[in-house]
Request: fold
Amino acid sequence: MSLYNKLKTDLQAGRFAPGTILKQKALAEQYQVSRIPVRDAILKLKNEGWLTDHGKCGVAVPEFDALEVEDIYLMRMRLEPLLQELALPRLNSEVLGRAEDILAQMERSPISAADIGELNWQFHACLYQAAQRPTLYAVVKHLHRQCQRYIGYQSLSLNYQSRSQAEHHALLDALRARDGKLAERLLREHISEAGQALVKFLR
Amino acid sequence: MSLYNKLKTDLQAGRFAPGTILKQKALAEQYQVSRIPVRDAILKLKNEGWLTDHGKCGVAVPEFDALEVEDIYLMRMRLEPLLQELALPRLNSEVLGRAEDILAQMERSPISAADIGELNWQFHACLYQAAQRPTLYAVVKHLHRQCQRYIGYQSLSLNYQSRSQAEHHALLDALRARDGKLAERLLREHISEAGQALVKFLR
DNA sequence: GCCAAAATAAATGTATACATTTTCAGATGA
DNA sequence: TCATCTGAAAATGTATACATTTATTTTGGC
Reply:
């Protein structure tokens, strides 16, 4: 496992408080490697939003930023329905079945908060990939990953989780019925509600 | 000037044919540096779409991909009007004046194709930045930069350029008049036409 | 002659050492 | 007292050397 993965895991787990400033040398010693792999990992993590430049020297673990979350959800609300629409004609029973399986997995308790987030993405990703639009998919995936940074810290209320799960089932039904308009609306609302819940939590 | 900038300039100028496979050692010798800065530059350029992984070994200059362009313009059509709408209430005479100046610069001939692309971005960026939405702005900027890769190779027809410029003026007028609906429609059409022209050119 | 497997070559990943840049505490002067 | 300059310490950038992984060629067997 590369240092990049280790560092990302630790960031996702919240082992570095927001605002913490990380130095290459300190990280190298902490993880028992030289500074070269540290530099590589930092470069990648900066691109993914897990770290930000801190002036000319060092990188910082970004603070929580409600405005950033708002932006991300605004974008998701516009891009994900588009991607789903492009996927709709290509959704066959195999893909729909896989989506169903993932939903079933999410209902098996107990399950960690981090796993819920991952499975949630797996569910949508499985549908999105059917569109065979790598570029659009890559951007949507990137936005999801950005959200993970925030979701990782909070444990979603059980109340929210069950509503979210109901929405997943409704969405899947609409897709099965080839009701594009309905599916689009359901997805937009699904994202909107998740975004509002997260922004509310952050303030 | 860092190697990253040098390499990017050369890629933007089309000095590496699409499909070319680049090796770290070869690049290091070509640019007279060690492999460390080469690795850093490659990592960044991969993230920006200027290079793609080539199996387990080496990176490739990506081929032209009409589907990628289509995706990018579909996204831009949905994100840029949103960003402009958020910017509208904050557009003051200073920002509008700067936008006007940039338009004037674009009309000064002669001007290179690369400069037109850059000025075109400056025009929209100047308006977008007024929204003060760094996250949304960053994604839009990224999509623009991706387009540059394609635009760099073609020299736009004069016919298209004059129409595009007329659209810029119409857009600016709508913004000055605080007509959000009109500005949104004009921008969406502006992007749509640019996308269609580019996709048509690529096929 | 063709395929598989070992040996060789080449490319990338990483460690150490050194160069350059940036930071910051403390001295100096107005 | 405050701003600014300066020099040491610290951080990042880069080169070289070595380790590991991946690609290619060669060789042996069928």
In short: Strands of chain A lie at 21-22, 52-53, 59-60.
